[in-house]
Amino acid sequence: MIRFECDYAEGAHPSILEKMISTNMEQTAGYGIDPHCEKARELIKKECGKDDIDVHFVVGGTQANTIMIASMLKSYQGIISADSGHIAVHETSAIEATGHKVITVPSADGKITASQIAQVYDYHYAQSNREHLTQPGAVYISHPTENGTTYTKEELIEISNACKQRNIPLFLDGARLGYGMAAPDSTIDIKDLAQYCDAFYIGGTKVGALFGEALVIVNDNFKTDFRYHIKQRGAMLAKGRLLGIQFEGLFEDGLYYKISKNAIDKAMQIKQAFKEKGYNFLYESTTNQQFPILPNDVMKKLGEKYSFTYWADIDENHTAVRFCTSWATSQENVDCLLEDIKNI
């Protein structure tokens, strides 16, 4: 079985593993207070073009989202998200388990707009009994979105301005950030996130690391005592240097960007092959996630050899599925799929 169902099927980039092996017998302080984590922080600060940001490392994306969002919100507040947002549909109500509601807004492509944020916020404050309602206290977006779509720099600025005008923070989920920035139509880089977001994270688990995400806190209001939040929620890794070592490897020579491009190149080949067969797509994605709408018999035939993800029923004869590439997707496996698509 050739796997295209996710971007974390493989382990880690070989150079990351080599770095972990070569440092294996080092003795360092624990809990992220070690030279490797410090170097990784400095590398990320350089990428962001800011020295006054805080960088913390956690093992996974759900931890990054939960810790950051819970630390931002007051007990009676919730966070605005697209109805397809990862925190709304794929994290087992992790945010709600902290006592905070995810306030969802409809989205056809996974993105939300500045006007939607304004509508939710302004509607709340127009209510005479608003103290009986969950107060919108922050905004969540992801780049790319759950549907493989990307925000433009202009859209990011508009959303940021809408948040600033209402004095609510903007948090960006970057689990697949490398793939978002490597997309052919991308207009956003890490420096933009550091300028327009209050906090965001750089995904490693899906982009070359064995595990790990780098949380970047820009807004000073959320920096104080943040390590208490990490510890309280069980996310402070004793062998924290393992996270630092990996982000050292990802950012010291541009590896993060190089391997992200591999996923995009392979995904575009797959997209073109389905287009040439005349198939439509559920979303217009330029990232490593592609969502072709297939006749059910074609889906069944391809499923005999390839694993991919069911996404949505279109009608009784057609289904939308997701093919997902990664930093490790080989040309050999893609060529095999391209040939089978051609011969369907």
Instruction: Provide the low-confidence segments as ranges.
Output: none
Number of strands: 13
Q: Give me the number of helical elements.
A: 14
Backbone shape:
globular
Q: Which structural category fits the helices and strands?
A: alpha/beta
End-to-end separation in angstroms reads 18 Å
Proportion of beta-strand residues:
15-25%
Report the major sheet.
7 strands, mixed
Mean residue pLDDT: 97
Helix percentage range: 40-55%
The helix/strand series, from N terminus to C terminus, equals EHHEHEHHEHEHEHHEEHHHEEHEEEH
Rounded radius of gyration (Å)? 21 Å
Question: Strands of the largest sheet, in order across it?
Answer: 2-8-7-6-5-3-4
Textual characterization of the structure:
It is a single chain. The protein is α/β, with parallel strands linked by helices. 42% of the residues lie in helices and 17% in strands. The protein has 14 helices and 13 strands. The strands form three sheets. Strands 2-8-7-6-5-3-4 form a seven-stranded mixed β-sheet, with helices on both faces. Strands 9, 10, 12 and 13 form a four-stranded antiparallel β-sheet that branches. The longest helix has 22 residues.
Question: Brief description of this entry?
Answer:
By secondary structure, the protein is of the alpha/beta class. The protein has helices spanning 14-22, 35-48, 61-72, 86-89, 94-97, 114-126, 153-166, 177-182, 190-196, 226-232, 241-251, 255-276, 296-303, 331-342; strands spanning 2-3, 54-58, 77-82, 102-105, 135-142, 170-173, 199-203, 213-217, 289-290, 293-295, 306-307, 309-315, 318-324. The strands form three sheets. The chain has a seven-stranded mixed beta sheet with strand order 2-8-7-6-5-3-4, with helices on both faces.
